[in-house]
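queue> pop job 88
queue> type: inverse folding (structure -> sequence)
queue> payload:
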């Protein structure tokens, strides 16, 4: 694993962009930054779980992407899905 395991960690995707559509952005509302909630909400939430609780939470919530693909967060999940078969 390349990054430390913490509550706010995210996966990184290596993408090749072939086409991009742009717009003027006039339909996008202004959403001013109010505060960083990570230190107040996210970090304490995961700190209370402890390392084994965080892993159980990730196994329950983060082993599949929104479109049902394996995330690769745990190597054994990739193996079970067949994604790493040669």
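queue> result:
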């Amino acid at each position: 694993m390349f990054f430390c395991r913490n509550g706010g960690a995210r996966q990184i995707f290596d993408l090749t962009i072939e086409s991009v559509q742009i717009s003027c952005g006039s339909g996008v509302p202004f959403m001013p930054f109010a505060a960083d909630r990570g230190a107040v909400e996210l970090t304490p939430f995961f700190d209370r779980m402890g390392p084994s609780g965080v892993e159980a939470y990730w196994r329950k919530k983060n082993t599949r992407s929104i479109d049902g693909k394996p995330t690769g967060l745990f190597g054994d999940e990739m193996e079970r899905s067949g994604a790493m078969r040669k």
